[in-house]
Amino acid sequence: MKSDPPLAAASVDKLQLSESVAAHLREQIISGKLKQGDFLRIDAISKSLGTSTTPVREGLLLLQSESFVRLLPRRGFVVNSFGKDDLFDMFWAQATIGAELAARAAARMSDADIAHLEKLEAEHQKAFASGDEALVTRLGHEFHRSINLAAKSPRLALLLGSLAKQLPNRFYTNIEGQLKGAVDYHPIIINAIRVRDQNAVRSLMHRHILSGGEHLIAMLERRGMWSESTNADDSASDEALS
């Protein structure tokens, strides 16, 4: 008879499944597919995702801790409002911490570290020229990760990571204009790091990250994310997830 997995491994799998559920619902909320006041029925969600109800409930509790949903006594989970200011604040927080990490990295990166950034950026430019958005996104992530690690401030980097998880990955890839923005900003940031200009690095990184939020807000506005019909009613509608 097949033995049960070790408790630690089972706990990790359970946590990953709950986070996957939360990520799926978070994306639907940010994209406007789930709107303020929509009820999130655990049974319906577990059926649509092909999972048990336990990770769905735990995923919803995670979203509640992030204020994406709230739990109404005897009624269930309901979607909170999500406006432009909320989205801007998410990027502002990331930009503020990311800028500080970059400034610290500028004082600590070795010549070899900077050479690594230059290599990543050369590959990034080639990927952008060829239109390979998946590779552009991966190299862009590695660019920022290298800087964040070089700052040698693990708790601050962990905090940034927890903030970044609140925005689904596809939004980082699909922000209109952001790929070109990265191509424009990255070489300038490298130059500022090379001359150890921490103030310039901090300012550039803050503007670079915040511009992504501005692009995303503009994109969602064009799609009618915050139209009058979306925000007209603050009451909860008894709408199940389809």
Automatic annotation (TrEMBL):
CDD domains: WHTH_GntR (cd07377). SUPFAM superfamilies: GntR ligand-binding domain-like, Winged helix' DNA-binding domain. Keywords: DNA-binding, Transcription, Transcription regulation. InterPro entries: GntR_C, TF_FadR/GntR_C, Tscrpt_reg_HTH_GntR, WH-like_DNA-bd_sf, WH_DNA-bd_sf. The keyword Transmembrane helix does not apply. Residues 15-82 form the HTH gntR-type domain. One of its GO terms (molecular function) is DNA binding. PANTHER family: GLUCONATE OPERON TRANSCRIPTIONAL REPRESSOR (PTHR43537:SF24), TRANSCRIPTIONAL REGULATOR, GNTR FAMILY (PTHR43537). This is GntR family transcriptional regulator. It comes from Caballeronia novacaledonica.
